[in-house]
Amino acid sequence: MDMEKVNSMDFGEFVDVFGNVVERCPLIAAAVWSQRPFCNSEDLEKHFFAFIDALPQSGQEGILRCHPDLAGRELQQGTLTAESRREQRGAGLMSLDAAERLRLAELNAQYRARFGFPFVLAARLSDRAAVPGELARRLQRPPAEELRTALGEVKKIGRLRLADLLGAAGLAGP
Ligand SMILES: NC(=O)NC1=NC(=O)NC1=O
């Protein structure tokens, strides 16, 4: 893992590369940059997660609100980020039939009405068959617990995106 290259990035380069590790939250990469040098990929990941954990609840909920719904409007309109599109496609969420899409839209609306933020799940670790059931299950959870669970999913997504980036050509070590 060529952390030397990561540690040599200027601010703009670092945010260009790592700005979407947390969906639509480049502020986090902008903050983590000042923690360099990073001794390895785990250290880099630790700083991303520490930033999230140190936020007040309003900030943590704000991170969740930056996530597009699974199989939602943005997927239909083609306005997803490249990472989100890849993740949602990989989970089969681009090939739902009308009934599946409607069911997910209803569950997403119920979830958002109850918690005030969207349902977030690491799509790469799930699939179209499991998402509605997982959403319905989490819909019943106490708000404080669900906030922790949702942030855990943000971290799973971030871990996978960091692994993609650090394994990408040019950043992978010998
Ligand atoms: N609401 C979401 O869970 N969104 C997402 N999950 C992913 O894995 N990528 C997303 O954009």
From TrEMBL:
Pfam families attached to this UniProt entry: OHCU_decarbox (PF09349)
Enzyme class: lyase
Recorded metabolic or biological pathway in which this protein acts: Purine metabolism; urate degradation; (S)-allantoin from urate: step 3/3
Superkingdom, taxonomy of origin: Eukaryota
Single GO molecular function: 2-oxo-4-hydroxy-4-carboxy-5-ureidoimidazoline decarboxylase activity
Lyase keyword on record: yes
Entry keywords, A to Z: Decarboxylase, Lyase, Peroxisome, Purine metabolism
EC assignment: 4.1.1.97
GO biological-process terms attached to the record: allantoin metabolic process; purine nucleobase metabolic process; urate catabolic process
Entry-linked InterPro entries: OHCU_decarboxylase (IPR018020), OHCU_decarboxylase-1 (IPR017580), OHCU_decarboxylase_sf (IPR036778)
Membership in a protein family: Belongs to the OHCU decarboxylase family.
Localization: Peroxisome
Protein name: 2-oxo-4-hydroxy-4-carboxy-5-ureidoimidazoline decarboxylase
Annotated Oxo-4-hydroxy-4-carboxy-5-ureidoimidazoline decarboxylase domain residues: 7-163
Organism: Acinonyx jubatus
Reaction catalyzed: 5-hydroxy-2-oxo-4-ureido-2,5-dihydro-1H-imidazole-5-carboxylate + H(+) = (S)-allantoin + CO2
Keyword Lyase: yes
Record's function text: Catalyzes the stereoselective decarboxylation of 2-oxo-4-hydroxy-4-carboxy-5-ureidoimidazoline (OHCU) to (S)-allantoin.
Example of a GO cellular component annotation carried by this entry: peroxisome
